[in-house]
Design brief:
The chain is of the alpha+beta class. The protein has helices at about 25-35, 40-60, 145-155, 180-190, 220-235, and strands at about 5-10, 10-15, 70-75, 80-85, 95-100, 120-130, 135-140, 165, 175, 200. It has 2 domains: about 1-35, no CATH class; about 35-235, Beta Barrel (L,D-transpeptidase catalytic domain-like). β4 (about 80-85) and β5 form a beta hairpin.
């Protein structure tokens, strides 16, 4: 329950809140009281600290900040998100590695709205959300053309959507990274130019393992999907 003192000045509600709640709820209340934020405002708010935490990793990888190229690779089995960056003429360098704190579902692609599955495929960052219920988020471009094609072949119409890489530690079909980590990812994507940044979501890290031999194929076309993902993963340095 919130407590605090509030004053109205120039039509703006100003106050101090003390809330016993999850960070996502605190953020939602703040946004409703103070108005919707913008990407640039969030970068100004979190940028200095986030860049400071990432600086040593980019220096060690010998990649300029912000990088000329950026790629995110998420591995469901390993519960890990890896960040790759490169200078204009350079090769990919693994610069950051984060644990995925929550991701619902099992190995296999997302098929429909409400199946709680994290999708698998080659996607892009579609937008940055500075007003996420889960602190901040990066929207992933699911469903892509392959997802829609297979949905049409299968007669599936409602494929779902709103797949995010976000803060907090809870997930229904998204990748929850924690608030501090998503601040870094958000600032990095904004600084590097997020449009067109690839996001690979793979069931396993094919550089080090294969799919479990006893795992039944969830759909007939899953091998075709993994033949798209595998070479993209194998092209990345460990």
């Amino acid at each position: 329950m919130p407590y605090g003192r509030y004053a109205i000045g120039a039509g703006v509600l100003i106050g101090t809140l003390v809330l016993v709640a999850r960070p996502g709820l605190v953020h939602t209340v703040k946004v409703r009281l103070l108005g919707r934020s913008t990407v640039s405002a969030r970068v100004a708010e979190f940028g200095r600290d986030a860049r400071g935490r990432m600086a040593g990793h980019f220096a060690a990888a010998e990649v300029d900040y912000p990088p000329d190229r950026l790629l995110l690779a998420a591995f469901k089995s390993e519960r890990e998100l890896q960040v790759y960056a490169a200078n204009t003429s350079g090769s990919w360098r693994r610069t950051l590695t984060y644990p995925i704190l929550a991701a619902s579902g099992a190995l296999g692609p997302k098929l429909r709205e409400g199946d709680r599955q994290v999708p698998e495929g080659i996607y892009e960052i579609e937008s940055l959300n500075p007003n996420s219920r889960f602190h901040l988020s990066l929207r992933v471009s699911y469903p892509n053309a392959f997802d829609r094609q297979q949905g049409g072949r299968d007669g599936r119409q409602d494929l779902g959507g709103d797949i995010m890489i976000h803060g907090d530690q809870v997930s229904i079909g998204c990748l929850a990274m924690g608030d501090e980590v998503v601040e870094e990812l958000f600032v990095l994507a904004a600084d590097a130019g997020w449009r067109g940044v690839p996001v690979i979501i793979s069931p396993v890290d094919f550089r080090q393992s294969e799919m479990p031999s006893d795992l039944a194929a969830p759909v007939p076309w899953v091998d075709e999907l993994y033949e798209q993902i595998r070479p993209q993963v194998l092209s990345l340095p460990l």
